[in-house]
Amino acid sequence: MTADRKPNRFKVGTRESLLARLQTDLALNAIQAKFPKINFEIIAVKAMGDKNQHTPLSELGGRGVFVKELEDALLDGRVDFVVHSLKDLPTEMVPGLSLAATLERADPRDVLVSKDKLKFGELPQGSRVATSSRRRAAQLSALRKDLEFIDIRGNIQTRLRKHDEGQCDAMVLAAAGLLRLELSDRISEFFAIDVSTPAVGQGALAIECRSDDAEVFSILHAINEEPVWTCTQAERSFLNTMGGGCSVPVGAIAQLTADGQIELSACVASVDGTRTLRETLKGPVSDPAKLGTTLAEKMLSLGAREIIGGLKESDLGLVSPP
Predict the structure, then answer these.
(1) Which residues are catalytic?
(2) pTM (global) more than 0.85
(3) Which of 9, 106, 263, 282 to pair with 229, CA 20 to 30 A apart?
(4) Please, what sign has the CA dihedral across residues 53, 58, 59, 60?
(5) For 28-67, what is each residue's pLDDT tens digit?
(6) Domains plus CATH for the chain?
């Protein structure tokens, strides 16, 4: 226990948005179900990606635009642990910090929100489709080169407002956020994972703490959901091997199969949608990291290296949000 920590009371860092607070509550409820005597003080921290609502995320640069300030609060002792959307957490951990638990994975798919509930294939030619993610734009532009993909910023409620105000004709979001906010009625279509392969870790929650804080790590790891951990470790190993952490706009999703294996599917697509590489590989649940590494190495040898090289040389900057 740190010198200034009160017994059974922990300071918890979270972003300020309604979704972030809701996800933090999910994590804290899971902790209290196992450790009912523990109390929490929630401390909201404004991340760089939340402070700057105008610059496209691809141009902000830096590491983990939605997690850095939270990790700084951990490192300087202002909070004892933080709750993230796992997809925002880079695969290369900051020295001194550890991923203690993953849990509560909601539907990992991407979804379409559109006027008149039109499906993606029904959008009129020239429609403006909003997303801050190059991963989504690259995969979907391969299917509809007649659409205009534009950047959009803000929390989910802000994005929906911008859509309703006519700033775009449709937008692509993560299903998990809309479902957690009970906004499923806004979803026009769920994209199949072989159409828009999700971001690594999408839909899952992550809890991060200081590596040397054995008490907190032990408590947090006690609520770790092993199936979520296994699948997301395969995904994160894949992304890490591809190189660049969150800066590489690739998709990967792992699922447990009926025969007790992990099935990992991944995609790398060029910015202009002219080249898309998809592969799937199965492996034992005992070594998810090896599965991720093996699939990444296979895809790199099949041309992913050249696609990623083109992405990094594009004028969109090095960082791509998931």
Answers:
(1) 88
(2) yes
(3) 9
(4) positive
(5) 999 999 999 999 999 999 765 444 444 444 444 444 667 8
(6) 9-105+203-224 (3.40.190.10), 110-190 (3.40.190.10), 238-313 (3.30.160.40)
